[in-house]
Amino acid sequence: MKHELKVMITEAEINQALDKMAEKINRDYQGVDSLLVVGLLKGSVLVMSDLVRRLDGNVHLDFMTASSYGAGTESSGDVKIVMDLARSINGRHVLIVEDIIDTGRTLSKVCALLKTRNPASLEVASFLDKPSRRVVDVPVKYVGVEIPDEFVVGYGLDYDEAYRQLPYIATVLNP
Ligand SMILES: O=P(O)(O)OC[C@H]1O[C@H](OP(=O)(O)OP(=O)(O)O)[C@H](O)[C@@H]1O
Ligand code: HPA
Ligand SMILES: [Mg+2]
User: Fold this and answer.
1) Does residue 50 carry a catalytic annotation?
2) Which of 102, 127, 134, 136 to probe ligand 2 with, by most ligand atoms within 8 A of CB?
3) Which end of the chain has the least Cβ crowding within 10 Å, N or C?
4) ipTM score of the complex?
């Protein structure tokens, strides 16, 4: 079936939001000798690459794969760590980058796990935030855009793995 998409956030609006997020992050981490940016695959790939290009200082990258949404639009609630980080985060300043925080289950699980590994600091930057859907409370220090309770695709976000490559964010009118 062909999906009908309606643009919610344009490429220009994404870039404006990224500029603001990066400005805050650069201000907060000024003077920190190195920042480890952790992208949660696969959703964070686009925001990760666009955000880190805007960061100053000594930035290192690592990735983790967490997955809870199968083929549908509802989280299974069962968050699996499919691939772990490549290196230790002991004593590191860690910034997790996500495409979206929805129920909060993914970030809650990942933050709890990473906290046990003694980072010097641990914060979250999520491009999208759907606060009305939250089931688990997770502190997100940097948010690009707050959105209403609609299933969105594009800019890393998928519907059954499709549409991640879109340079804008859209709603699916006929899921
Ligand atoms: O706040 P939550 O309700 O947990 O939802 C947010 C998470 O769900 C999506 O990932 P998904 O598990 O679908 O994997 P993906 O990143 O590979 O798309 C999205 O990328 C976030 O990681
Ligand atoms: O709105 C969404 N779209 C795609 N994936 C998601 N994972 C959580 N929420 C969403
Ligand atoms: Mg994800």
Assistant:
1) no
2) 102
3) N
4) 0.98
